[in-house]
Amino acid sequence: MRYIRGFLKVVCYILILLFSLFPIYWIVLMSFKQPADVIAHIPKFIFKPTLENYKGLFSSTGFNFIRYIKNSLIICSGAVGVTVVAGLPAAFALTRLRFKARENLAFTFLSFRFAPELAIILPLYVIFRKLNLYDTYPGLIWIYQLITLPLFIWMMMSHYSEIPRELEEAALIDGASWWKIFWKVDTPIVLGGIAASVILAFVFAWNNFMFGLVLGGQKTQPATVGALGFMSYEQVHWGKMAASAVVGMVPSVILASFFLRYLVKGLTMGALKD
Prior knowledge:
single chain, mainly alpha, MetI-like fold
């Protein structure tokens, strides 16, 4: 019975994996199809592949999708950079220091993710217009903090809480300040957690659609919004939209692959213990 349960568990894992990866597989498959194959009544798994959908993305005379990728890279990298600079000290202070309203402040950061984006997007649009932040990189980088900062702070709080307090007490006895403990003692220990948090924050920012659609214009629209350019009143270019989705996944996959070792270490370090 033990071997049967183990076999059934493996089968369930494989089925879950296939169910999770099939949409990605189908999008990749669609990106290599001709328009007639995409809209075929019976889905085609065997067809003559084409690169025309990808050529249409980067054509200098047609729809140049590369500028939307550049906008996404600038916005997401800037947002994550600001988040790391502001979020690391905040997570350390909320975890290791004792001060009044500490829990209320931590909950306030978390509450930024409670309200749906549709509930705040119109007031933000009015504010951005009045402050001349509409269709600007600084404006989008600033508003993307609503996505990246709460996620980063709460993930890093779990990592900092795993560090034994004896290390900090020893450093305090040696005369170290809290800033030196943060920078020299605790932060080097949680580098894996920082890498994991940065990757997840980047992916969440990269996949955001609403902020870029409403608060970004022709100069700063990200890749998630740029894909809408393949929809017109005449037809929807499904092949090019699928190709844009595949290209849009590349930066996140490269980032996750490059920091894979730190990602696994960081996610396991922040896990709860029994």
